[in-house]
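Quick check before the chapter quiz. The format below is the same one you will see on the exam, so make sure you can read both the input and the output lines.
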Amino acid sequence: MDVLETYERPYDEEIPVVCLDEKSLELHDERHTPIRSRRGTKRDHEYVRKGTANLFMMTEPKGGKHYVRVTERRTRRDFAQCLKWLAQKYPKAVTIHLVMDNLNTHNEKSLVETYGLVEGRRLWARFSVHYTPKHASWLNQAEIAIGVTQRCCLGKDRLGSMQQVKERVIPFWKKRRNQRWKIDWRFTPKKAQNWLKTFQSEH
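Here is the expected output.
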């Protein structure tokens, strides 16, 4: 319920609510040149594996701000650098309400190991953290942005390098950020309570 109550907060640019999620991507290159025509693109079923990449998706649903970072891995250091980068996007924020999954890297320890005790704790203090419940990661609105990325930006194309991924996703979300593309979230605490009552009565 904590996450849903956080989403109910009125929009305040000095106290933003930001959702963060990660997605691993497999990098594939074409083994044979695709054939393009007016009817579409035909590609061979064979491809060349080029390793993996990771997307850090950060979205401020009510503010219409969306940021994405592409990294090689999803280590503690990568997460710490992502949070430092995110904090710099909100220099005037009193606090940043951060909604994210409770992964083993999503904690203060990652920042302390990366930046040292003093700086790590100072940076972590910029955030008011709200973890999604276990088995309820769908409450993280960043998952919606990741789904949009997959369907509308990456599609079925094969991308063989981090640079290709960056060239595809960063301009895509920059455009939506300029358009102040917002997420219309309708699953309120009241709806959650009604759903829970219905579920308990049926079981």
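If your answer matched, good. Residues 2-197 form a domain with the Nucleotidyltransferase; domain 5 fold (CATH 3.30.420.10).
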